[in-house]
Design goal:
Layout lengths: L13 H8 L3 E6 L6 E5 L2 E6 L6 H15 L4 H9 L3 H6 L2 H22 L18 H11 E2 L2 E2 L1 H15 L9 H10 L1 H16 L9 H17 L4
Parallel strand pairs: 1-3
Antiparallel strand pairs: 2-3, 4-5
Length: about 230
Amino acid sequence: MHKDWRKLLDRRNLELWNYLLKQYKIHLKKSSEQNYITRYTNDTVTICINEDNIHPAPFTHELLHIYLKVKKILIASDFINKIEQYPQLYFLFSNSLKNHIGNCMEHSKILPIFIKLDFKREDFVSDYDEIIMDEEQMEKLELDFLKDNIYSRQAIDVYIGKFFSIKSNSNEQYDYQTYLNAFEKLEPSLFKILNIFWTNWSQFDIENADGYENFLDVFLKNLNKWMQQETVI
């Protein structure tokens, strides 16, 4: 490890680091972007380090994503792969939305571990203080969402993306319940499908997992059924 990068490890994450080293070959390299990125190739993991932010918190964030892989929690990739079985859903979900949902689901599981390791909640993500939804965005969504019984694909993309962002929000200073209520009023059936899935995922224990495949399959089937009943352009 580069001598300056040794600052990435301290008493809080050293045990986790050593545990992961027993499972994967982990390489560290300089990131070409202003953030940390983790890439997987078979049994090798590469963590790209943002040298403008040499700190244990973002490094540990990436380690915890790897920890999920060790626990066989592959929800992000499984979600993307299973969508390909449904042509209409493949049309509905942009690549950025699919990646965003997977990231939100993983964040909801690694945040409690991050805090348990004695890291501060506000250091979990770089956009911690960013507001997810405001009244202006909500008004625009309501205007664009449904016209002449035709749903806007772009507006649904925003709807679903914001839903998962709010549900996985790490900043407890912001209360988005008003917007969730507005989402439910805007499209009750779609909201119910998303909310049931999120409830199942929230109750899923990564340490004593029976598997998430069943409720993931039910979620996608229900979403596909909703798509078949509606016109989305």
